[in-house]
Amino acid sequence: MTPRAVSAADEGLLNCHSCGLLSKNVPNAHDRCPRCGAHLHLRKPDSLARTWALLIAAFLLYIPANILPVMHTASIIYEEDDTIMSGVVYLWTSGSWPLAILVFCASVTVPLAKLIALSVLAWTAQHKSTWRQQERTRLYRLVEFVGRWSMLDIFVVTLMVGLVHFQSLATISAGPGAVAFAAVVVLTMFAAMSFDPRLIWDPEQKQDD
Amino acid sequence: MTDQTHTPAPQDEDIPSAKALPKRRLPSLIWLIPIVAALAGGWIAVHAIMQRGPTITIRFDTAEGIEAGKTKIKYKDVDIGNVTGVVLTEDRQHIKVTAQLAHATDDLLGDKTQFWVVRPRVAGGTVSGLSTLLSGAFIGIDPARKATDKRDFVGLEQAPIVTTRQAGREFVLKAQDMGSIDVGTPLFFRRVQVGEVSAYTLDKDGKGITVKAFVHAPYDQYVTSNTRFWHASGVDVSLDANGLRIETQSLASIAIGGIAFQAPPDQPVAEPAAADTQFTLAADRNSAMKEADRERAPFVLYFRESLRGLSVGAPVDFRGITIGEVKAINFEFSKEKREILMPVTIDLYPDRLRGRMRQDQPIHTPAENVRILNAMVAHGLRAQLRTGNLITGQLYIALDFMPGASKADIDWKQFPPSLPSVAGSLTQLQDTALSIAKKLDALPIESIGKNADQAMRNANKVLDNADQLVSRLKNEVTPEAQTTLKAAQDAINQAKQTLSPDAPVQQNMNDTLQEVSKAAQAFRDLSDYLSRHPDALLRGQKEDAK
After folding, report:
1. What's the pTM value of the predicted model, to 2 decimals?
2. What SS3 class is residue B215?
3. In A, which residues are within 8 Å of B24 by CB distance?
4. Which parts pass through the membrane (chain A) (predicted)?
5. Which of A45, B94, B97, B286 has its CA 20 to 30 A from that of B307?
6. How far apart are CA A71 and CA B504, in angstroms?
């Protein structure tokens, strides 16, 4: 399979994130870089716990984000609260299928996919699984990459609120769902950041030993 | 991070040791995030559940304008719920609307709660629900006074005119026909709109209409036990003995009809009527007010003249005050009198004959009435047909005191008793004309003509004589006069010739005059000589002493 790899952690060495200095690990202590004073750690501290915590929070907020209205449209003719899904349905029924698909992917599928992907990563890392480490690493990179695009929905709402503002004729304002949704996106981004992908490869070392 | 190359591990002394800091073993604060998220989510969920009110179903005939998720239920223009679903009923005859009401709206739901769809509506002169043209229909609710746990309702197809929360009272009106009444038709009290028609139904027997009219507070106090209601719809044009009458209520009621009510003006104020009191809806104001006269005294009048122009309903009037009306006109042949009589049955309203000042007096007993009427007839009270309108030829019956009327009395034996009548004014006029004609007839027109003829002839003769005289003057006198004039002319001419300057007479006259002047000259000389030598008279002329 993969060639025999030596990791810094096996040798008890720490690599500084800030200045790249290699230093020896002192067990049972918070280490500092002797050169620049940055925090040193073999692996991201509490990586799994933090990832799980943020993931659970994101999962919890994902529910109101989809149930509560994201956008409140008020005009002379009518007053309407739109959730993400109703917006998609509206776009679909009004015939702009590409837009509907785009919004659906960006606002529904991607956040959910990220949440599930991160959960899978965290779960497998916790169980020291050696299953498909390559794909899992690629998955992690994908999650990291896609993270910033999940804010598309919030971006659309923000633009609408800014553009459509004819005081008495029509106003659009962000609903409570938008806040929840933004929180979901931010939390998943943090969760992805706090997950240490090296954990995917650690079990292999253990097996080899 | 991990290099794949097989470089030997770096030497320990080459690698600096990391600074050691004491380890903190604190529970990670990161778990606060999901806890906060859970709390927030939980609070939102609890709040949403708390805000959920009762779920109801309403049955309508049609779902026109109702959209699941869009249509709102509004009470006093406040959203109290949302339509969550619209489905057909099992029997496919109606639609069933499921609606989720807001928190704490249970007390609005009861047996009497009514729902209706508010759509643009034009009725009773009012336009309502125009806002729904843009915003789409919504469901209105008229809440019950008493809450029950009823959750399935049957919606109204039309908005109720009167909702339970409106103060006022509803009255029942019995009408012959609808006229131009509709739900929402305004009710007028002294031409102020004080209510509207809330419902109407055709009576089961098909003989009339029952109208429910709602009068808003505080105007409902003006509906008293003696109030009369009448159709005030449109223009009431009537042509009767009083001439052409046009009655209208207001411009609005002309367009959309209306009902007016009022107590008879000459009656004391009665106590307000209870709700759901039944009234009769009269055709017009006059008939409404007529019903006020509960007391009627029928009489019969016999006329000998033509009744053309007299109609049932014509007024019986006493010096301009209507005190009754004609009820029937019949035909009767009197065997004992051998003549055709025209009996006219009239109804008199004794109320109207009673003095205003004596309102509080006890109503006369029949015996007293008989006495009073007898006295009146003895004073000359008679009935008479009069022309009310010369153009239309309408007649009315006048009761009045006729001085010089032949003696008559009331026949109390028959029913109704008959009042004595005299010939109508038109008949009197005809009589007068007839008598004039008779007098004209009696004139000796022929002899007058003859005499006139004679006189004319005489006059002719006189004229002839004058004519002859003139011709004689012309033939005999004129020539004589002409000769005379000629002679005069000649004489004048001769005189002219005589007096002309070159005439011999003139010459002679001149000469004569010269002689005379010479003589005068001589005489003057003589007198001069004498004045100087007065002695000459005695001595004579002296010779010159030379």
Report:
1. 0.48
2. strand
3. 30
4. 52-77, 97-124, 145-166, 172-192
5. B286
6. 157
**Cα A102 from chain centroid (whole Å):** 19
Average model confidence (pLDDT) for chain A? 80
Query: Distance (Å) from the C-alpha of residue A105 to the closest C-alpha of chain B?
Result: 24
| List of residues 6+ apart from B468 with CB closer than 8 A | none
User: How many Å from the N-terminal Cα to the C-terminal Cα in chain B?
Assistant: 218
CA–CA distance from A38 to each of A19, A20, A33, A35, B117 (Å)? 8, 10, 5, 8, 70
C-alpha B186: how far from its chain's center?
A: 20
Mean pLDDT is lowest, of B12-26, B166-180, B339-353, for B12-26
Are B431 and B351 contacting, i.e. CB atoms less than 8 angstroms apart? no
Tokens 């109609």 locate to B311
**Looking at the complex, does the CB of residue B274 fall below 8 Å from at least one CB of chain A?**
no
Query: pLDDT-derived band of residue A134, with 50, 70 and 90 as boundaries?
Result: confident
Spatial separation of the C-alpha atoms in residues A22 and A15, rounded to whole Å:
5
Confidence at B546, pLDDT banded by 50, 70, 90 = very low
CB contacts, 8 Å: A33 with chain B: 18-19
d(CA A157, CA A70): 8
Taken in order B177, B183, B189, B191, the sign of the CA dihedral is negative
Q: Residue B5's pLDDT is what?
A: 43
A139 Cβ contact list (under 8 Å, min separation 6)? A117, A120, A121
3-state SS assignment for residue B385: strand
- Between CA B225 and CA B234 the distance in angstroms is 26
CA distance B214 to B186: 9
Cβ contact, residue pair B21, A29, below 8 Å: yes
Residue A173 CB coordination number (10 Å): 15
Residue in the structure block whose two tokens are 């003989």: B207
Please name the residue ranges forming H helices in B334-424: 350-353, 366-378
At B389 the pLDDT is: 75
| pLDDT > 50? residue A117 | yes
pLDDT score of A1 = 47
Banded model confidence at residue B361, pLDDT cuts 50, 70, 90: low
Give the closest-approach CA distance of A198 to chain B in angstroms: 9
- Beta-carbon separation of B18 and A78 below 8 A: no
Tokens of B131: 């806002």
Burial code of A21-50, b = ≥16 C-beta within 10 A, e = fewer? bbbbbbeeebbbbbeeeeebbbebebbbbb
